Amino acid sequence: MNLDIRLTESETILQTAAKNFLERDIPKDDLHALHDSATGMTDALWRKIVDMGWPAVLIPEDYGGVGYPFTSAGVLFETLGAAPLPGPLFSSAVLSSLIVLETADEEQKKRLLPDMAEGGRVVTLALTEADYGWTPETIQTSAEAKGGDFVLSGLKLFTPDAETATHFLVPARTGPQGVSLFLVDREAPGLAVRQLEGYMAGRVFEVKLDRVQVPAADLIGPQDQAWPGLETAMAKASAVLSAYKVGGCRAVFDMCVEYSRVRIQFGQPIGRFQRVQDMLIQMIHEADAARWTTYEALWKLDTDRPATESIHLAKAVASEAYWQVCTLGHRAISGISYSREHPLSLHTRTSRQLYNLLGEPAHHRREIAKALLA
Amino acid sequence: MDFSNAYNPEQEAFAREVGAWLDQNIPQELTRPRDILLMSRQEFDMRRDFCRKLGAKGWLYPRFPKEYGGGGLSSDLAQVVQIEMVARGLSLPPIYDSGRLAAPTVMACGTEEQKERFLPPILTGESVTWQLFTEPEAGTDEANQQTNALRSERDQDHFVVNGGKIFVGGIYAPPDQFLLLTRSDLKAPRHQNLAMFLAPADLEGVTIMPLDLFPAGTFGQVCYETGDSAPGVKHSVFFEDVRIPDSYLIGGENEGWRVTTATLTVEHGDRGGEHVASSGAAYIPRNLVAARLLAQCRDNPHIRRRVEENPILQDAMVEAYIDAEIERLFYTRNTALPRAGRRAPYAGPQVSLHTKELGLKLTNLMARLLGPYAMTHDAEYGLEDRLFEVGERAGICIAPGGTPEALKIVISRALRIGR
Lengths: 374, 419
Fold this sequence. Notes:
A: 374 residues, alpha+beta, Butyryl-CoA Dehydrogenase, subunit A, domain 2, B: 419 residues, Butyryl-CoA Dehydrogenase, subunit A, domain 3
């Protein structure tokens, strides 16, 4: 049957399990504490998440995962985005797993992925630098071959989840035209991590590499040729990240509709005022636009259709939608929503923190423009 | 989930049958002007004849029951007829006909006797209907009807209608009948004082006058491949002591608002029920103006040069693309909702609102991207068979089917904002 927007039975189970988990295992105060922490996660909570099997969702069974379709991963991350649950799950289970799958050789996949599926190895991508961007030209960190190993030096900026990661995936320049990918241990000598300050900055870090020695075995995939696989993995991960934002959009909208019914001013619920209605109508528009662009992109990935354009569309729309929905949410709720304790504050921070990750909307719009003129 | 919209095997076979018949029966001379104002009387009559032919096959209103003159087709197969018509540049029905509103209204609110009397002429293409709701004092405030339909004192089984309607109908008057909303009680409270008729258009005392309008079509006229069903020309209709027998009253005296709601639910884009139990391809409108605008940017060397050298124009192009994609996906969602056994009453007006706002935005994006080419239909220098010039005009005209602001009220209620 085509044209079907229903979840599969297993997706419904996944969704219900995630909802129950969030309600049961993460009380409101804990969630706020997570967002205020450098890790976005606690060891105890991570163990529970591992028990839920979520780090394994996109990793194929051959490598110790469960190999769910992208749409199912989307459903899971949409549910988690409604909280919003912070932490390294996206960086490790989605983005880094996909990078390993797209770039690594068979031996490396067998070595890395089962450990990632079990949550013992937490990996994050350290790509962007001072010349912030998501294209290979922006990469200046160098990797020099030396006695069979590589020596990495450079500065990675705005790296997410660096505090929780046990390992980094580091794209570095191995030649004027060549970008290679390295797996770098968090404890490697010469590697220093510092969190960047800012209430809206989130858990992003400066990662300094000062002559960090990386064994040849941790050159992931072919030397000089890492970019195509990296780009493919980032595109696929973008679609799942968009689903996380979809969950956030809908949660904020639901929160605001409820408030529009119970908040009384001038003797009536504020939702009776058309100015307020306008904002809520705009919010559901943004949320729905994000939802359906995202799920179409996920579906294209699952059915091996060309998905690049759809992913750029979804990511551009969802990032902007999450930002705008939160802003409108503050305007609709006003006063109380500016309290740090208010659930909207978590979404607002998250919408800002994730706005640029894997490409700001302007990046995706430029890619769409290229495709439209091609 | 599945976003594919391909024919299933049953549809595939039926599409071949429909396609072959259409190719044989669509008159060669049917030019399908993109500008409805250019449609000749001769072509209009040709289209009316073609309506009858379609009606005889049951393909004019394929989803309606056979016993009333419809096609009795499953939703799956009914969609095929529409898709194949659109593929040949025609809408279904291929002329302006408010039968698409009147028929479901009669189905929902008419008596059995009325269904038997009213539906066959509509569904077989014998009669063309105009919707007569709007009045000078009843625009967005539809319930504020001033056209009176009062029981005749002489004979109690007649109503006498006095008043006037405005911004109604399509090109080439008169139609055969009106779906006419009136005020039937001067004392009863608002919403309890209305009556709906499906009445002949040739009754004594009816005068139809064309309006001298800014040459604006409605956006549906050019935006979609279904284009030509929407009105490009509007009329006033005056009623002077027009006697209507009460057998033409739909839904009972002073029940007019309930009937109106049934009509407006269809008009505001609710596709609920239409696609239930459907499993195959559905007709999903494509925004023709946006598609052609993007094609100009890519393929017209004069336009492409402007766009390539100016990143700000590239962003305007991307804006058109993104909003047209959102529109397509909203239509897709609306089609898929009833199939999934779900209702989202805000979804219909949401896509209508987006379409109208996109129409306004597109006229501006056209001006930015195409420059003065967007404004002319000069035979030598105009682009694409007047499409953009008409698109510019059409974008201005966003009132039919409810202004964006009225749609926001509908959406707000459907979402129970503040209630």
